[in-house]
């Protein structure tokens, strides 16, 4: 009877990890979309400042 009442939480844990992964991926995609061009611009400024074209 005890086995019947025990809860198997492996499925719930997998769902929680899936949700966390989805949120992290969404944050990365949003960050790249918002800041991607600005970061490219910053890196494009480095060679001229070093004296190389």
UniProtKB/TrEMBL annotation:
Ranges that cross the membrane: 21-44
InterPro entries assigned to the protein according to its UniProt record, in alphabetical order: Flp_Fap
Taxonomy, superkingdom: Bacteria
Pfam families hit by this protein: Flp_Fap
Entry keywords, A to Z: Membrane, Transmembrane, Transmembrane helix
Full protein name: Flp family type IVb pilin
Native organism taxonomy: Bacteria, Bacillati, Actinomycetota, Actinomycetes, Propionibacteriales
